[in-house]
Amino acid sequence: MPVTAADIEHASHMLEDVIEQTPVAHSRALSRLLGSEVHIKCENLQRAGSFKIRGAYIRMAELSEDEKASGVVAASAGNHAQGVALAANKLGIKARIYMPLGAALPKVAATRDHGAEVVLFGTTVDQALAEAQRYAEETGAVFVHPFDHPAIIAGQGTLGLEIVDQVPDVDTIIAGVGGGGLLAGLSVAVKAKAEELGRDIRLIGVQAENAAAYPPSLAGDALVTLNKVSTIADGIAVGRPGQLPFQIIKELADDVTTVSEDSLAQALIFMLERNKMVVEPAGAVGVAAILEGKLKESYGDLGNTVVLLSGGNIDPMLMLKVIQRGLSAAGRYMTIKMMLTDRPGELALISRIIADMDANVTGVDHTRIGGSLSMGDVSITIDMETKGHAHCDKVIDALEAQGFRPVVVH
């Protein structure tokens, strides 16, 4: 293995006065859904808002004095950028961070606030990454990779030591996977602890289904590069596994599964409502897997389970969009569109039907102009708050019973 349990123990000692030991909380709501006890490891409360400070600090603390003097460079859309910036600040190292144009303003501001120089470049993380590597070759600055380096993996693995220490009887750990540095570090640390304890601890990774390079890579025992990556979970939007993480994960992790975009949105809302936690989509993938029910179907009783909330750095604008999508996916928000005859009383009748069904209209838009509209017709779009999928069906049925033909937009 490119990373050993001893490496992670050493990293843990190095981080003692650098990071917070984030809390673990029991979740009754998730426990009911999974059918076994579920705890959440709140790494979203970590300094800089995610686990990334762990690996970044270890990678940079181990640099020689000459390397530190040359400075470091990295590329990221958010969490890695903040982790590198904070670590550099604590170590007195000059940091240059490339972030793509359009990166969330709060993440850019936070990275600058930690003292790093931020350069906006390209429209994707891959373009920013290529520019960061070019800058490193040109200037001699040390490139800090987000996941494909032994020191990064060792730093992230310290989370595994904390989890086993805080929940000694843990049976299953669920964590998100992007490039794989986190799951790889967890696997090394936790499997070593499990061997010491003389029992098994299961490690399950979760990816967004639109950014899932690990399942095909593991199935074919070779790195697979995705042609397209598109997910609201920008923190794990990685199109190709890291070479070192892949080597570790294929040997030690038990499974890597996927979740849908709708489940990610619902997971974020679930954590807000039930556990009062602000979690970014990438940090909530483990919760999404529980909500989908696929873990229970695959494994039955997972035993005492810890779900890692890996980060909480979410742009408020993205949060707004995710909440809207999550409510829609849960049947708590519905938009319908239908054609009406342009005559007095039609809109009032529709409003009364919806009100009688105890749904709440939040927006109405109508137009008399359009290529598909005949003279005397009106196209109307209605947004409403609903109480679940069954309630949505009843509203639609009530409108259809009065002769209307609503089409659900979302």
From TrEMBL:
It comes from Kocuria carniphila. The keyword Lyase applies. Belongs to the serine/threonine dehydratase family. Its cofactor is pyridoxal 5'-phosphate. The gene is ilvA. This is threonine ammonia-lyase. Keywords: Lyase, Pyridoxal phosphate. Gene3D superfamilies: 3.30.70.260, 3.40.50.1100. InterPro entries: ACT-like_dom_sf, ACT_dom, ACT_ThrD-II-like, Ser/Thr_Dehydratase, Thr_deHydtase_catblc, TrpB-like_PALP, TrpB-like_PALP_sf.
